[in-house]
TrEMBL record:
Transmembrane segments: none annotated. This is DUF1993 domain-containing protein. Pfam families: DUF1993. It comes from the Bacteria. It comes from Gynuella sunshinyii YC6258. InterPro entries: DinB/YfiT-like, DUF1993.
């Protein structure tokens, strides 16, 4: 069974980035209220072999830039640029220097969210039929729909969920609505 629905990708991303800004702001307030060094939360992880919270967020922001740049065939050639990485860093990954304040992370997420408003579907270059992501000397080649549905979205939500989970684990008072945002549905009473 298939459903023909157009995914408003930039709206989905923008909404989740806005929600992430709210979560990060609550984490900053939590650190201040409980006299916790911000770097302790920024570098927190659920397991020793996972990336810290701030790198989970960096992966999200660079993936958004890299994904939309590739999908729209707009911007720089970003195959090897870490600012446009699409979940393809791998072991020994290149990341920015660690943030020391939540304000830095919030600023990065905000700038990516604001960048989304500058994008347009109308470009002089036709978007490619396939999307290529390079990693470890290999090229992963996706159809556009497979890239969005089976690669970008699952990884996007995974890394956002990891950051949320890390903050919850370390006591930040976040709930499901902080992650999801305001409901997009209407409610009515069902007559009895």
């Amino acid at each position: 069974m298939t459903f023909d629905c157009q995914l408003p990708l930039t709206a989905i991303i923008s909404r989740m980035l806005t929600n992430t800004i709210g979560c990060l702001d609550k984490a900053r307030a939590h650190a201040q209220q409980h006299d916790i060094e911000e770097t302790d939360l920024l570098n927190a992880r659920l397991s020793a072999d996972m990336l810290p919270m701030q790198q989970q967020i960096e992966i999200v922001t660079t993936a958004v830039r890299g994904t939309l740049t590739r999908l729209l065939a707009a911007g720089p050639d970003c195959a090897e640029d870490p600012d446009y990485a699409v979940f393809n860093r791998g072991v020994g990954a290149r990341f920015r220097p660690p943030a020391s304040r939540f304000a830095e992370l919030i600023s990065d997420v905000t700038s990516v969210r604001d960048w989304l408003t500058t994008l347009s579907d109308s470009h002089s270059t036709a978007p490619p039929d396939t999307i290529t992501v390079q990693m470890h000397g290999q090229a992963r080649i996706f159809s556009r729909p497979d890239f969005i549905v089976h690669y970008f979205l699952p990884n996007f939500y995974f890394h956002l969920s990891m950051a949320y989970g890390i903050l919850r684990h370390y006591g930040v008072a976040l709930g499901k609505q902080d992650y999801e945002g305001m409901p997009v549905y209407q409610t009515t009473l069902i007559p009895s």
